């Protein structure tokens, strides 16, 4: 099974994914951004704003997840913002074709709380403005995200509480 944690940048996906993996037996975090980093040196002649724009990224995320699950089984927790509906549809269809069940969650908070979290982040300080600049893209994606995922309002929850909420909703 895959538990996909979606949501805007800075909402707490990475922190929650670590907490969640610790709560679930045989769970591990798969950071699909590493697939994008791998492709950068190969596809640097194809300029994009975001590596998700490269079709090979989407296909390789599916293939990598399938290979990892075939090898070790268990649960993959993927903390990755996907704000383009077409990209999500491709990834979800690929995972379905591979026979991998997916639980798709969106971690959500109001824009003011999100901005406070981003401003207060002491780990990824270099990405602060970039994260703030992406809030409108997330807001634009919310209608389709609400259709495609289970939305968890994280405004008044810690990452541990969010992870516990998700873990409680996932069959063992």
Automatic annotation (TrEMBL):
Pfam assignment, any one: AAA_18
Gene3D superfamilies: P-loop containing nucleotide triphosphate hydrolases
SUPFAM superfamilies to which the protein is assigned, alphabetical: P-loop containing nucleoside triphosphate hydrolases (SSF52540)
Name the UniProt record assigns to this protein: AAA family ATPase
